[in-house]
Design goal:
The protein has helices spanning about 1-15, 20-35, 40-55, 75-85, 115-125, 135-160. The protein is mainly α.
């Protein structure tokens, strides 16, 4: 199994398009870390994160791919958390790019969508590893908690409509 996962890491450049390669590299690292098998893939993880870090912009974050014309909150939050945990020098200032006057993302308080919930979970997970005096991380955490509670409430209401 370890050999197959190493092959998957090595195949990432060939199997991903330039539109989503950064997100795929980060997702692969996130998955092996969450499975608790990352110790077997230290070289592959370092290579994947070096690749992602080359495209990191401290003011704007990153998009899902190296050729993405705009950045996205999901990939930026995922990247911020993982890169920081691996001691890369990335700034939370990138989150300011997504923090509008009243909301973090468009349609944030509409009907919860799977992708939006995943994005907010990544934002929350990133927000729990702040450096001192990073106000944007506190704002991100407060927003994520409020959003996720509201989403849970809305999902609960949706399921209650399906009772038999």
């Amino acid at each position: 199994m370890i050999r197959e996962i190493k092959d998957m890491f090595n195949a990432l450049p060939a199997q991903t398009s330039s539109a989503d390669d950064l997100h795929e590299h980060l997702s692969m690292v996130d998955n092996v870390e969450r499975l608790g098998i990352d110790r077997h893939f230290q070289n592959e993880i370092k290579s994947a994160l070096d690749y992602v870090y080359r495209y990191w912009d401290d003011e704007r974050g990153i998009g899902s791919g190296r050729d993405s014309p705009c950045t996205d909150l999901n990939t930026t939050a995922l990247g911020l958390r993982i890169l920081r945990l691996h001691r890369y020098g990335v700034s939370s200032d990138a989150l300011h790019h997504f923090n509008g006057k009243d909301e973090w993302i468009l349609n944030a308080y509409g009907e919860p969508k799977v992708k939006e919930i995943k994005t907010i979970l990544n934002l929350f997970r990133a927000s729990i590893i702040p450096f001192p005096r990073e106000r944007v991380m506190d704002e991100a955490k407060a927003f994520a908690i409020t959003y996720l509670k509201e989403a849970l409430h809305n999902i609960g209401k949706s399921f209650s409509n399906f009772r038999m």
